[in-house]
Design brief:
Helix content: 25-40%
Structural class: alpha/beta
Strand order of the largest sheet: 5-2-1-9-16
Distance between the termini: 51 Å
Shape: globular
C-alpha cells in the first residue's frame, strides 16, 4: 500500500517505521525538518509498568482518574497493555533511557501517578533522545522524506481520503495515496502563552474538519503548571516536583494543598488553577522551590533546566524560581478508534492530533509519548485491513463538524484580525477559567473575524487557527459543567484577573 504519514514526532515516525517494516511504500511529509515538533521538546518521560509493586491495572486507574471520568476505558487498556512493549521497542531503536549503576531502568514519579513508573533519557531530555533515535532509524530505511512541506488540505473523493495537498516553496501540489496517517500534533499557538514550538498551529485538525472528519473534545486544553516566568516560555518538568520540589507563595507556604490533598502532585489542571489563583491574589508569580535537592542533583537529573535557569540569571539550587502556567496539550482532536481509524475511509490519526479517548478531560503526565508510540504502531498494523473500505468506526461522544464555518473574504468589512489578537482572546476567555459571558463574547468576536484567501504558509496557519479557535470556543460554550481541564466559573472578574497574570 502507498501510505503517507504527515508529521514526524514520535507518533508519525513510529507509524512510518512499522508501516515500512510491514512492506508498505511509505512517505513522511513534515512541516519543517524531520523530527521538528513537540516530541523533541518533551522533558517528561514515558510511562510504563515495571516490577511487582506496579501493574497495568494501576496505571489504567491513574489514567482514568486524571481523565475525570471521560476517558475511553478500552483505549486506556490498550495504552497500558502495550506500554512496556513500546518502551522496549524504543530501546531497541537506540533510545538510551537512564539506568542505575546496576543497569536497571531508573523510574520516576510525576503528578497523579500512584507509582514511580516513568522512564527518562538524559534526565530531562527524553523527547530529544526519542526524536533523535527515531529520525536516525527512519533515515536508515527506504522511507521517502519530504521536508519543509505544509499540509494545506486532505484530498477527498467519493467520501474517502485519497491524498494530500501540499504547499512547497510557494507552489501547491496534490499527491495521491491509498492511506493518509495524520500525525501533525496539537494547536498550542491558539494561546498567547504556550510551551509548544512555533509550528503547532493545528494544521492537521483543521484540514480534517474541512474534509468532514469527526472532531471532538476541543474544549479540553491542558495548561502545564510550571513554566519559567521570566523570558520566553520554558517548561520546568513535572518530574522536578516528582523528585520533591514544592510550590510556595510569597510567604513560603505550600498553597496547593488548599486545592487538593496531593498538593504539588495533584492533576495538572488542579495545580495550574491553584498557581494562577495564588499569583492573582498576591500580584506576583508563585515560586518552585527545588533547593532541597541540591546543586549537584539538579544539574545531573535536570541538566537542560539547570542550564536554562542559569542562563536567565537564576540559581535554582539556592533560591526558588518563579513559575506560571501555559497552554501545553490538547486532549481533543480528530476522533479515532483503537487502531487510529477516523470517520473518513483512508484517513488515520495518531498522537496529539487524534482524540483516542485515552486522556478524557485531562492528560495524565507522561502518557502522551506513550500514546504516540502505542497508537502509531497500531495504525500501521491496521493499514491492510482498511484498504478501500469504510472503516469499522463508531463515532464517539460529541462529534464536531465545522467544515463550512470559515469563509474567505477580503477582510476589511469587519474588525481587523491578527494572530496575536486571536491568541490573547483565547488566553483571556477560553483559557484556564471560563465563563458563559466570556465564551459567548469570544465566539462572537471569532465569528466576526475573517482571513483573506490564504497563499503563504503563515496565512494558511492563521486560517487554521481561526477555524480551531471558533471550534474550541463553541465546544467550551456547549459544555456547561466543569470537568477536568475545562473549568467554568460564574465570576468573570475572577477569570479575567487570573488569566492576565
Amino acid at each position: 500500500m502507498n501510505v503517507v504519514v504527515v508529521g514526524s514526532g514520535i507518533a508519525g515516525l513510529t507509524a512510518a517505521l512499522h508501516a515500512h517494516e510491514a512492506g508498505h511504500s511509505v512517505t513522511v511529509v513534515t512541516k519543517a525538518a524531520l523530527g521538528d515538533g513537540c516530541t523533541g521538546y518533551a522533558q517528561g518521560g514515558v510511562a510504563g509498568v515495571y516490577g511487582a509493586s506496579d501493574s497495568a491495572a494501576r496505571h489504567a486507574s491513574d489514567t482514568l482518574v486524571a481523565g475525570a471520568g471521560l476517558s475511553n476505558a478500552a483505549a486506556v487498556d490498550v495504552l497500558v497493555a502495550d506500554g512496556a512493549t513500546r518502551i522496549a521497542e524504543l530501546i531497541s531503536r537506540g533510545v538510551g533511557f537512564d539506568r542505575s549503576a546496576d543497569g536497571e531502568l531508573l523510574l520516576g514519579r510525576e503528578a497523579a501517578h500512584s507509582h514511580a513508573r516513568i522512564v527518562h533519557a538524559g534526565g530531562d531530555a527524553t523527547g530529544a533522545a526519542i526524536s533523535g533515535a527515531l529520525v536516525a532509524a527512519v533515515r536508515r530505511t527506504a522511507v521517502e522524506i519530504v521536508e519543509n512541506a505544509f499540509l494545506v488540505d486532505l484530498v477527498v473523493r467519493d467520501g474517502a481520503v485519497r491524498g494530500i495537498r501540499l504547499l512547497i516553496d510557494g507552489a501547491s501540489d496534490d499527491l495521491e495515496f491509498e492511506a493518509v496517517i495524520l500525525a501533525t500534533g496539537g494547536a498550542g499557538h491558539l494561546y498567547a502563552h504556550t510551551t509548544n514550538p512555533i509550528g503547532a498551529t493545528g494544521d492537521g485538525i483543521a484540514a480534517a474538519i474541512r474534509a468532514g472528519a469527526a472532531v471532538t473534545d476541543l474544549e479540553f486544553v491542558q495548561f502545564h503548571p510550571t513554566i519559567l516566568a521570566p523570558g520566553p516560555a520554558f517548561l520546568v518538568s513535572e518530574a522536578v516536583r516528582g523528585e520533591g520540589a514544592t510550590l510556595i507563595d510569597d510567604e513560603g507556604r505550600r498553597f496547593t494543598f488548599d486545592a487538593h490533598p496531593d498538593g504539588e502532585l495533584a492533576p495538572r489542571d488542579v495545580v495550574s488553577r491553584a498557581i494562577a489563583r495564588q499569583a492573582a491574589a498576591q500580584g506576583t508569580p508563585v515560586r518552585l522551590d527545588a533547593t532541597m535537592l541540591g546543586a549537584s542533583a539538579l544539574a545531573q537529573r535536570f541538566p537542560t533546566i539547570d542550564r536554562v535557569t542559569r542562563e536567565r540569571g537564576l540559581d535554582w539550587s539556592r533560591e526558588p524560581i518563579p513559575v506560571t502556567p501555559a497552554a501545553h496539550y490538547l486532549m481533543g482532536g480528530v476522533v479515532s478508534d483503537l487502531d487510529g481509524r477516523t470517520s473518513l475511509p483512508g484517513l488515520f490519526a495518531v498522537g496529539e492530533v487524534a482524540r483516542t479517548g485515552v486522556h478524557g478531560a485531562n492528560r495524565l503526565a507522561s502518557n502522551s509519548l506513550l500514546e504516540g508510540a502505542v497508537f502509531g504502531a497500531r495504525a500501521a498494523a491496521a493499514l491492510d485491513s482498511s484498504a478501500g473500505s469504510t472503516p469499522p468506526f463508531r463515532s464517539q461522544k460529541r462529534p464536531l463538524n465545522l467544515a463550512d464555518s470559515v469563509t474567505f473574504r477580503d477582510g476589511n468589512d469587519r474588525r481587523p484580525f491578527s494572530r496575536a489578537a486571536l491568541q490573547q482572546l483565547m488566553w483571556d476567555d477560553v483559557g484556564l477559567l471560563r465563563t458563559d459571558d466570556g465564551l459567548a463574547d469570544a465566539l462572537g468576536t471569532l465569528r466576526g473575524w475573517r482571513t483573506p484567501a490564504p497563499r503563504s504558509v503563515a496565512e494558511h496557519e492563521d486560517t487554521n487557527l481561526l477555524l480551531l479557535a471558533e471550534a474550541t470556543a463553541s465546544a467550551a460554550l456547549a459544555r456547561t459543567e466543569s470537568v477536568g481541564a475545562h473549568y467554568r466559573t460564574p465570576d468573570r472578574v475572577e477569570a479575567l484577573q487570573l488569566e492576565t497574570v
